[in-house]
Amino acid sequence: MPVSFGPSDVKNPHNLQWAHVPESFWLTKALIFDFDWIVREAALRPHAMPDVESTSAAGGLKETFRRLRTFEIRLAMTSNFNQKTVVEKLHQLNLAEDFDCIRCAEELPSLKPNPDLHINVMETLGIRPIKAIALETAPEGVQAAKAAGLFCVTPPELKGQADFTLNSITEFHLLELLERMDRAKRDQLS
User: Fold this and answer.
1) Domains (ranges, CATH) in the chain?
2) Whole-prediction pTM value?
């Protein structure tokens, strides 16, 4: 089945910094993070992403999320933890308002490795599996993402279980990271 990339938004109505990059340039339109990925990310990096001058990893994540939004990439989160735990931690990191959708343990009857959390997020965002990437930190999350038809990214300790391995979302310049993940996804579709 051929993949449709949609119409390009080359007029730049919002006067975005990367106006030369069409809206449809990336195959990915949503990143679905596992809660543990965000917690790990905030603790992992003593500095921000290469694109940003920030003194904290959480500040770097916030700036990364802001830049992802300029590319019209939606952000979501799934977790087997309860919503109170997840939202409190996200507020501590000043990241709670950065997610378009958060699905936790009490919202659906079945948790990871069942794909229901991922499927619910995609339905809520109006995104097809081909347009989303799941970032998971546990084998159960990888199983859930794959069962939902998602391209899955894991940290190096789970290498070989998913489609792509990444130390940190702030590891590369954002444009390079998006290109690497989409190239891997396109190669998989070929």
Assistant:
1) 30-189 (3.40.50.1000)
2) 0.82
